[in-house]
Amino acid sequence: MSKTVPVEFGGRWFWAYDVSLGILLLEAIHVARETPPGQRPPRTDAVLDDLRTHVQVGSSFAFPLDADEWDDGQRDFVRSIIAEAGRRLRGYGIVTSAQAAQRYVIDGEPYFLRGHEHVNGEVVADLAEAIECLIQDQLPPVPVTDRHWFFGVEGGPRTL
Q1: CA dist., res. 4 & res. 25, Å (int)
Q2: Which domain of life does the protein's organism represent (predicted)?
């Protein structure tokens, strides 16, 4: 069953598939950890804890890219690590459940793909690009009234 997460910025939003968003945020955390300390904003650990929390709660809460507790430097950092994570995932191609379980561990437990054998890195990369478009207010209009874009799914984006 598909679970959706609203991804928000500046009063605008779209739906994201929670498994894809989880993979994207966990890869972004890897990117952040590889970033030299001098290039990280103050309180990076708190920001990464926030990202981990969003992965853990999945579809229970919205993911606000303009969170009040983040300053501009932290928001820019999150934006940059999500973009880099998307580029990496596009390069990975298919991420199998075994690869995900090995690479993406949260609180000592492997990230669960909720029964999927794999996740397509291209689809997750498209979600990262949609996040950037949301921030830039460059998402195309939704073709159906009273619907929102749904990213992070095969054959997407769709509308819900």
Answers
A1: 15
A2: Bacteria
Domains in the chain: boundaries: 4-159
Number of helices (H), then strands (E), belonging to the chain: the values are 5, 9
pLDDT digits (tens, 9 = 90+) for 145-159: 999 999 999 998 999
Q: How far apart are CA 54 and CA 5, in angstroms?
A: 10
Count Cα atoms within 13 angstroms, Cβ side, for 56: 11
Is residue 94 a contact partner of residue 123, using CB atoms and an 8 Å limit?
A: no
Query: Which residues are registered as beta bridge partners of 69?
Result: none
| d(C-alpha 78, C-alpha 107), whole Å | 21
Give the chain's radius of gyration (CA, Å): 15
13's tokens? 């939003």
Would you state the structure tokens that stand for residue 156, as one six-digit string? 């997407």
| H-helix or E-strand spanning residue 44 | helix 44-57
Write phi, then psi, for 149 (nearest 5 degrees).
Answer: -65, 150
